Amino acid sequence: MSAAEKLVPLDDVLAAFDPALGLEVHVELNTATKMFCGCPTEFGAEPNTQVCPTCLGLPGAMPAVNRVAVESAMRIGLALHCEIAEWCRFARKNYFYPDMPKNFQTSQYDEPIAFEGWMDVEVDGETFRVEIERAHMEEDTGKSLHVGGSTGRIHGADYSLVDYNRAGIPLIEIVTKPITGMGEKAPAVARAYVQQLRELIVALGVSEARMDQGNLRADVNLSLAPKGSEVLGTRTETKNVNSFRSVERAVRYEMQRHAGILQAGGSILQETRHWHEDTGVTTSGREKSDADDYRYFPEPDLVPVAPSREWVEELRATLPENPTQKRARLQTAWGFTDLEMRDTVGAGAFGLVEETVAAGCTPQAARKWWLGEMARRANDSGADITDLGVSPLDVARVQALVDEGSLNDKLARQVFDGLLAGEGSPDEVVAARGLAIVSDEGALGAAVDNAIAANPDVAQKIRDGKVAAAGALIGAVMKEMRGQADAGRVRELIVEKLA
Amino acid sequence: MARALAAGETTSVELTRAALAATELVDGAVHAYLHVDAEGALAAAAESDARRAAGTPASALDGVPIAVKDVLTTTGLPTTCGSKILEGWIPPYDATVVARLKAAGLPILGKTNMDEFAMGSSTEHSAYGPTHNPWDLERIPGGSGGGSAAAVASFQAPLALGTDTGGSIRQPGAVTGTVGVKPTYGGVSRYGLVAMANSLDQVGPVTRTVLDAALLHEIIGGHDPLDSTSVDQPLPPLVEAARQGATGDLSGLKVGVITELSGEGYQSGVLARFNESVDLLVAAGAEVVEVSCPNFVHALATYYLVMPCEASSNLAKFDAMRYGLRVLPEGVESPSAEEVMRATRDAGFGDEVKRRIILGTYALSSGYYDAYYGTAQRVRTLISQDFAAAFEQVDVLVSPTSPTTAFKLGEKLDDPLAMYLNDLATIPANLAGVPGISVPSGLAEEDGLPTGFQVLAPALADDRLYRVGAALEAALEAIWGGPLLDKAPTLEGAAR
């Protein structure tokens, strides 16, 4: 690291500079076929098995637009409050790269399908309006694998292999306008924006939006301007940041790095940079100067896309509720505190709680099970909370059994053990494991009598009016009944018998 | 031939053998073909004969052999586009038009020579050597589809497919005495046509008669979901229009002679034949008026901006990574991808291709885009408007197809601008997407070489080309006592 790349503490950065942020998020759509051909888009297939003359860019092959991809793009645009173009075109972005079959990318340039939108982003109760400049359609490139060499990068590799399965998969690129006025919250805003955008994409059902699989990739543009200055500083573009946490860290790192250079009297180079997850730093990619000329021009092989207004309105009418608004609405309905809500969302349990409540469970009980019991189990087994094998319906049923007195919490946990072990429905687990609370008065009475007989001292205290001592007797009864007694009824019986 | 096949007077195998025999005899001198597929053609012919025998021919032209320009992809047969960079490349898929030929039962004789990536007006820019005009082997057969035109003109193929970006079907047709048609843009699928300039390219028939062209056009034309620019409408009745035109009656038809394309710069013999043809149309009952298309004077300049821009982008894919030629730079220990690409392109592309790549790259680069590409697109709109205005007055427009007869090989090689002038009359149709036909209109007296008569119609009204073309053909053949090609010199050793 050169001297110029000394990092400045964040507080010092903010004392001298105003950060401006720009985010470009690429979303890989989950269409069954590619953007311009009929090839399947399944993830993880054998290399180069999902290809055809068109996505391989063979001489003579021609593209044809995937209507479903256009529809997904419009749904994303509408959900981001964008205008939908009455008429738009694809353009060729000409540049050379070994994993790009045609050496031009079919993309949209000055005529995107969606433009001029916004999304409100919440950070610690404060709302930032992120203005969306555009959302445009394009195709993904192939993937290079560099073999030999230690770094997995092209330098030092013996040879390179290219997998074109990904080439031609539809992408939507969502570009913000410069976001300013965030101050110290810039890194958090960046993270929250990507997080909320992902939530929206998932709610729309147009992408799996998994960052770890590259379905959702963020490029982070950052610049610093002297405090109070109206003019934006020179920006750097950190490419392909692939987790929420990294988005936040990359912004913070670049703020600190830029400030270091500027305070040392240097100037920022406009360039692309690579983010290194392991070391938490960015390094220089290629220099992005004026020489970078993509020679865009309208793709002559594709007719313009002109979505009818009826189609647009039809899509607008069928948009799912905006996740942010939905969260606010349900928080009120459920009576959750901000902290409870944040935890629920953070644990990835928001949708599960929602479905559990819809199945008849109280919000607090649903939250208790998912965040207490299920989150812990998911954590222990390293599984995703949605993949445990326990459904919201199951949780609602278990809670119903608790409410009607057939189970207590301890028994309920055993029911969950059974559910996780695949022993069937909650009722089946209760029956098979014999977990139902014993409410047979005769059996309970006998157990209470035994407990009184075995603990004469305690019984005497209760007779003397120290009802609080009943706990010890209840414990004894529960022990005898293997936990399957209704604790409330046991207490009543003890008090009745010792009155 | 189709009639003879239907009547059982000959077989597809006999026709195919005859075409292959002609190739054996004359193609050493003509060089119309880059690849001949005798085995494949004869096998397809035998299958065709079996269908005929069973009474289930696949189409009107089932069994009639055909030659295909080497710019169309063919499974199992090389597709080189006349370029070294694709030497030996065998595509894994058929162009839609090739698939349609196969489905219609036409045996494919082979792939015809062409200017490299269809860039040229003389077929001298083929990396595999020039094609010679069967009328005079010292002369060019036109370009870029000189191979297809020469194959038909030298009786090596009764039918051929060409592609026309700025006149590459019509101009070779004119200088070889064959019929060439550029259909309406989008009327025939471009899928599998290795693009030169996508917004201008069109596949079309090269034949001996207008009716043959109509029959072939009906087989290759029509919507193709693989080509999103293809027109999603049924073709007009082309064969019917050709048959009707052949009766010689053009009454009720209004014909416009394009002022800008029928005077200055045209060889006198070409103009003389053109004027006689116009008289014949009048004799057939057509009303003839002069129509001005003022923006046509800018067509050549417009074309030479749009075409190289698109071409420069299309040719970017030839990077030595996936298919075709790969040349390692000399004296470099472990060359980078860029170095390999540079060496490959240096060796694999010819001068004309390099010239147009550089032109297009320059014209598209930021700062020049508006001045060049943007302006060209605006002029293109003006040319379309000229056509629209003209077609409000007349049903078809006519002009000589090419300003001159075939020039000598090598004559214009060092003067690209003079070469480009050959497409003066054909280019406006490509810029506007309208259809055009070139019909043989006789021999120029000064050099005894063929001239062509061009008919242009509004987009989607391709049937008018066939009506007018067939009427003119009938009138001229009555004067000549047979097809113009009968007057072509017999090539040494060649059988007809």
From TrEMBL, chain A:
Alphabetical list of SMART domains matching this protein: GatB_Yqey (SM00845)
Catalytic activity, reaction form: L-aspartyl-tRNA(Asn) + L-glutamine + ATP + H2O = L-asparaginyl-tRNA(Asn) + L-glutamate + ADP + phosphate + 2 H(+); L-glutamyl-tRNA(Gln) + L-glutamine + ATP + H2O = L-glutaminyl-tRNA(Gln) + L-glutamate + ADP + phosphate + H(+)
Function, in words: Allows the formation of correctly charged Asn-tRNA(Asn) or Gln-tRNA(Gln) through the transamidation of misacylated Asp-tRNA(Asn) or Glu-tRNA(Gln) in organisms which lack either or both of asparaginyl-tRNA or glutaminyl-tRNA synthetases. The reaction takes place in the presence of glutamine and ATP through an activated phospho-Asp-tRNA(Asn) or phospho-Glu-tRNA(Gln).
Naturally occurring in which organism (per UniProt): Nocardioides dokdonensis FR1436
GO terms of biological process kind: glutaminyl-tRNAGln biosynthesis via transamidation; translation
Name used for this protein in its record: Aspartyl/glutamyl-tRNA(Asn/Gln) amidotransferase subunit B
Domain Asn/Gln amidotransferase: 351-498
Subunit comment: Heterotrimer of A, B and C subunits.
Family note: Belongs to the GatB/GatE family. GatB subfamily.
Any one GO molecular function term: transferase activity
Keywords in alphabetical order: ATP-binding, Ligase, Nucleotide-binding, Protein biosynthesis, Transferase
Keyword Kinase: no
EC number: 6.3.5.-
InterPro entries: Asn/Gln-tRNA_amidoTrfase_suB/E (IPR017959), Asn/Gln-tRNA_Trfase_suB/E_cat (IPR006075), Asn/Gln_amidotransferase (IPR018027), Asn/Gln_tRNA_amidoTrase-B-like (IPR003789), GatB (IPR004413), GatB_Yqey_C_2 (IPR023168), Gln-tRNA_amidoTrfase_suB_CS (IPR017958), Gln_synth/guanido_kin_cat_dom (IPR014746)
